[in-house]
Amino acid sequence: xxxxxxxxxxxxxxxxxxxxxxxxxxxxxxxxxxxxxxxxxxxxxxxxxxxxxxxxxxxxxxxxxxxxxxxxxxxxxxxxxxxxxxxxxxxxxxxxxxxxxxxxxxxxxxxxxxxxxxxxxxxxxxxxxxxxxxxxxxxxxxxxxxxxxxxxxxxxxxxxxxxxxxxxxxx
Length: 171
What we know:
The protein is mainly beta. The protein is built from 1 helix and 10 strands.
């Protein structure tokens, strides 16, 4: 058990005679400094809210209102059922559309829910739709997708290594 009363994560040992065991307090903890992109919603543009401008950064954003402008996220963009997004080009790690999106999308993963509507071209490595979803445009499937966030982040935030994964906030 760990310090909080829960069970500690199991560890796979490839060189020995066992596969799984509880982590002991003597085991070294190896924590990567960078992990996968944040794939959860950390900010919300609520219903009844309209915003024109640039939406960029690290984390997940859910749009339930109306947004018009530029989207460049190292993380998740969710367009909720009541959400409307209009932009020339959406760039994000993952894009989930349950509302309306007008513009091209470049993302590692794109999902269109049954209530989702997209007018624009999609470039992605993983694509899924539910029955009833709508797409007016073409889909280009790639083995690996370069989202193109490096130039945006260098201009906006002064960061250099932006295409790699980021650590999730603790908690």
